Amino acid sequence: MSRGGLFLVVMAGGSGTRFWPKSTSKKPKQLLSFGTTGTPTLLQQTLSRFDGLVPAENRMIVTTGSLSPAVAGQAPGVRILAEPQGRNTAPCVYWAAREVQMLDPDGIMLVMPSDHYIPDIEKFQATVRAAAGWAAQNGDLVALGVKPSRPETGYGYLRTIAASGPVGARKVETFVEKPDLARAEEYVKSGRYLWNGGMFIWRASVILEAFDRFMPELGKAWSAAGGDAQKAYPSMTATSIDYGVMEKAANAVTFELDCGWDDLGSWIALENMADVLGARREGGVVTGGELLAIQSGGNIVDAPGRLVAILGLSNLVVVEHGGAILVTRKDKAQDIKLVVDKIRQARPELV
Amino acid sequence: MSRGGLFLVVMAGGSGTRFWPKSTSKKPKQLLSFGTTGTPTLLQQTLSRFDGLVPAENRMIVTTGSLSPAVAGQAPGVRILAEPQGRNTAPCVYWAAREVQMLDPDGIMLVMPSDHYIPDIEKFQATVRAAAGWAAQNGDLVALGVKPSRPETGYGYLRTIAASGPVGARKVETFVEKPDLARAEEYVKSGRYLWNGGMFIWRASVILEAFDRFMPELGKAWSAAGGDAQKAYPSMTATSIDYGVMEKAANAVTFELDCGWDDLGSWIALENMADVLGARREGGVVTGGELLAIQSGGNIVDAPGRLVAILGLSNLVVVEHGGAILVTRKDKAQDIKLVVDKIRQARPELV
After folding, report:
1. What is the ipTM of this complex?
2. Where are the domains of chain B?
């Protein structure tokens, strides 16, 4: 086997409930399909996005033990690293890097979230190829940076040294937290900022060196457990790879990604994706069931097998799944957590 | 058999869709139950309201042929007059009067809608007894008049000669159509007006005389068909007993009814009835399923077996039944017809 191959590491441990009641802890966003019947789930789309780029035997999915049967069902034959518990992305990347290095000491890791949406696969693959080549040759840590299409306040940003344009690798000056709207508008206008899409590309050996430098406790926990992730995990720091490593590393660069990426962060995101999902209907965006909107518009509806009639109300989110119905306003979609927290106490089986 | 007995005539032909999607043409309001599990349907409540007053063999239900199996299922053993088609209340009363007169030439008919709600049965029976006694002795046409509890614009009114009080029979001066709010407030203030509850009490022979006088075409159609309702119906005038007879009769009187009556005319009516239905919950009125209301209040919810979460929206009507979900505002509940009309074309099986 030739050295320096590409390895796909899909992070699929998320248990977000921002799409409740469609998403639940047993069936989080990455295991769901958004769009017309037969649309693959976000996890399945994540995998097939690398067809022709990463061979099946070089793919692995990191997820929590409780989700791994469902994940395996959607990704038959793909190696699964089942975490004993979710500990954010740093330990997950550490474990995967160890696995890749065992398989190929010069292996290049493509670390990808499992719940994002990317319509233009060709452009995506071209950028990934270029970034992987750069990471292999230069030993940099690449964070893919999404070209911002709007002053989004829900994402983190990468500030780069280049003023604009997809000019290969651009040095990341700093990782920026979610900004307020004024700042986000400034960012987009400046051309120096890209969205941090949480997608990373690097040589396994390079990220492991970075871990040793910035989070040495991970390597110590790993060694103490004799390289057994199940034993090591409980004493590994639960922090993000962004915060634990990337923000501190001097060799962080970015490649600009311009492929219609969206992280589907809440029901509202479906509006941005409506056309590519084929979900635009009279009266709103419908990703499940039918909508009849009278004296009403701008609604988001997901209620498979149901007819939803909305009369005299606009900009609603109406969702029906598994015995639960959610009715809220689009501008409240970020607060679904309030609902989920209440239900978790009263009716845990519904979240 | 002694003559001059009481006969209950329940009118159960309505196919209203004001409670869609809970009510449908196959299961209209009178066949539905509102309230906690095990609550009898409105039709069943209508019948049991006469227990101790009208013996089983003196009860009959007039309904349309298509509904009669469902009606029979809810009222086993009760005689059913199955109309070949709905033709408003005048032909229905005519047929029932003919039936009663055959059974008892001096029989007193208690003509009652099947889809109203009456919590205080004792008071109701007392008023019915008094009115029936009056009708038997004086040969008047009695319309029960409900003491108004609010300036309701959804009901017709009876203007009486008496200024106020339940002083036995009060002459009805005129039948008044649904008023606007200013007029309704005036009516309630005056004390001379009662709601027209559509409940009538009279001797069968007296109403038949009135028919002969004010709607002679009914008797002619009846005779021409040899007393066969199925044959007579198509040529009987489809009009209401109010308009066809009562408004014209000189012997129309009323007895004041003060028993918490409500006609459950729309989802909003459930708010008036919430306490007697035991349906008041945190966040609104719930006649089916569970409600979780956050930053929300004043909702009306009917979704059996479902948890309905409402976030950041108030005064909604949210209903789920048989594969359809309705989301509207309370102040639009009168317009559900707009929804039903649309669905009748596109998805007739849902209405």
Report:
1. 0.87
2. 6-257, 270-350
